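step 3/5: co-fold with magnesium ion
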Amino acid sequence: MSLRYVTVLGSTGSIGVSTLDVIRRHPDRFKVVALTAAKQIDRLANQCIEFNPAIAVVSNADGAKRLSELLRDKKLKTQVMYGADALVTAVTDSACNTVMAAIVGAAGLVPALAAAKAGKRVLLANKEALVMSGDLFMNAMKLGGGELLPIDSEHNAIFQCLPANFTKSPQSHSEVEELWLTASGGPFRNTPITELVSITPGQACAHPNWVMGRKISVDSATMMNKGLEVIEAFWLFGLPLEKIKVLIHPQSVVHSMVRYRDGSVIAQMGQPDMRTPIAYGLSWPERIDAGVGQLDLTQFAALSFSEPDFERFPCLALAFEAATLGGTAPTVLNAANEIAVEAFLDQGLPYLQIPVVVEHVLNSIASTPAGSIEHILDVDTQARESAHQYIRQISG
Ligand code: NAD
Ligand code: MG
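step 4/5: write tokens
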């Protein structure tokens, strides 16, 4: 067992807090060396007081000033920094060997890439890094020589169901017929389509099984989340898109499965608690206590599975379309979706307009090769502008 020095990018978020909860249980195994957050300064201050990291990063100078004030007289070694470059510093200059990439959205891409290049063990929760820059990110991992542990529960499940070293041994790929990503179907799986017109942010964020950040909760309701996960799986496991399937499984007990050519299907099951995949990523290949209650299968009358309904979930269809187009299309999809979800949460964009906005932007920006991070970020900006503009147009 080697000591893991951990940087938690996005430590105040849902994944970040769960990560620190696992770490807290194992002071003999894990030391926190850097923590980062955008705006929740009070929470970050409390985390710094508990874990005494070498570096703490916030978004802007005001936040840094406030954090420094909160940490004054606490006798900590923590150096307070701010800005996007400081997120990279938290990865490269903190003496960490392990990085939890749990910033939400495109903002997490550059620091995650820095962790890949630097050969760290990367615990990847930020799916956008793969959706937007899968090719670059996987190459950076290869060149950096570090270990990539997927944290998204479905991908972590598949990782557990695949043979060791699967991604490094292409000859074993022919043994796998399909990856089955399970999806709960979200809160509106059975809501009559006519009632979706008046869905509020509160309803969309009330996920039946998982407690998550607001953005990903809406993505679960529209199933855009599963669409992004299909693209994420494509890059992580190196299998053709046709081998990646989505299954609706409302109980969220089976977190995903692998179907092999000999007829075997291997599934990973557990409570819907992100601390299980987080603990697995932190301690792999060992297993540690994650603080998660045991799964009691007798509590479930049945486990059910069905095909997704692409009419009910147009965002899922759009994600498959973007995945098939490749290049920068997934970046456009993701950016347009982020803006549409934000507009739904904060500006009253109707729920059913989310896929309309995404489709419009996806059709208006041609896909180009995702050859460099600069180009990807340019396209990301362009897609966001286009989404804003279209939302103004349809709301005006
Ligand atoms: P969250 O909104 O709860 O937390 C996001 C974190 O990122 C916070 O610490 C926030 O301060 C930070 N952040 C936000 N914007 C930032 C910016 N511009 N610059 C720097 N930091 C910023 O989100 P979450 O639910 O914890 O999700 C984090 C990531 O993990 C997402 O990519 C999500 O898709 C993925 N994920 C989450 C879950 C889950 O159960 N929550 C499951 C699978 C994957
Ligand atoms: Mg997931």
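step 5/5: annotate
Residues 152-154, 229 surround magnesium ion (ligand 2) (CB under 6 Å).
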